[in-house]
Amino acid sequence: MFGRCSLQCSIRALLLLVPWFGCLVVGEVNHDFSQCQEFFYNRTPPRGVTAAGYQPICQRYKNQYHFASLYHRQHRAPLFSAYLLSPPDGKRPSTSWMCEPQLAFSHASPEMRNFHTPPDQNIMESQAVTQDYKNSSFTKGHLNPSMHQSTKEGREATFTLTNIVPQRAGSNSGPWSILENSMLRKFKAFCNGSMYVITGVMPYQSGERWINNRVSVPEYMWSAYCCPFFRSDLPKSERLFFPTFAAVGRNDRNSGEEIVPVNVKAKAALRGYDVRRMPLETLEGILAQRLAMPISLFDGNCRN
């Protein structure tokens, strides 16, 4: 899935984004998202990711693509995962964590697989492993959550560390979980057709943070959805939420409040992990500033 680092990296992009981007990683199958375009609205991945350095992964499990991720090997974490939301037909699976073999071996199987014990050294160099999270004070935060996948195989496929970022427990099991449940309810109640979701992260501006000196820690989580077809009789209270909406969540309770204010009345364990809901355009403006890229998440802003 990856080969040699491209020698044609954009000089301008490198000057802007040296802390977060390296050279483009190309591969046998996934040098782009051409194998899994169905997870993006109008089969169009986000535009404006101009800097090189991220590896597109079409997340394949049991001979089927389940979602897509844009992964950074140096940071051993994804920038985003994109998927089609669908109500689960069962519980959260009890499954082992998996890795992406082609990040380590370009001619390996395209199927994600369970980690060996101990992990292969090439796997460890190319991606996060479960040991990275031990005693780290961070949980394994899904970008594509298992509860947003209908089938057992789809839910199992989300348990790859290429879909995971270090997330504080107060965020993961608190306001961020509430947001994920809210999106699922809106899909069930108001969406007539597909809901396209892209969930990702924002790095620290003040310098990179790491767990185990290996996995980059995000300062914020973000998520956006596109529901191009929805009920014509939307309640007045829901009209702002369609066809698109977005949110940003704090992953550091000590961060400033310029992006997401703190609710001082929240429970002590959850205080500082607030989620701010916002229009899609507001999120894209924040991403443009924080990532130095004019990102457009959904083709035509999800309007037919």
Question: Can you walk through the features of this model?
Answer:
Helix content is 18%, strand content 21%. It is built from seven helices and 13 strands. With 304 residues, the protein is α+β, with helices and mostly antiparallel strands. It is globular, with a radius of gyration of 18 Å. Residues 1-29 have low confidence and may be disordered.
Spatial order of the strands in the main sheet? 1-2-3-8-11-12-13
Percent helix range: 10-25%
Q: What is the β-strand count?
A: 13
How much of the polypeptide forms β-strand, as a percent range?
A: 15-25%
Major sheet: 7 strands, antiparallel
Measured between the Cα atoms of the first and last residue, the distance is 34 Å
Q: Number of helix segments?
A: 7
SSE topology string: HEEEEHEHEHEHHEEEEEEH
Give the uncertain stretches in residue-range form.
1-29
Summing up helix and strand content along with how strands pair, one would put the structural category as alpha+beta
Task: Give the CA-based shape.
Answer: globular
Radius of gyration: 18 Å
Overall average residue pLDDT? 88
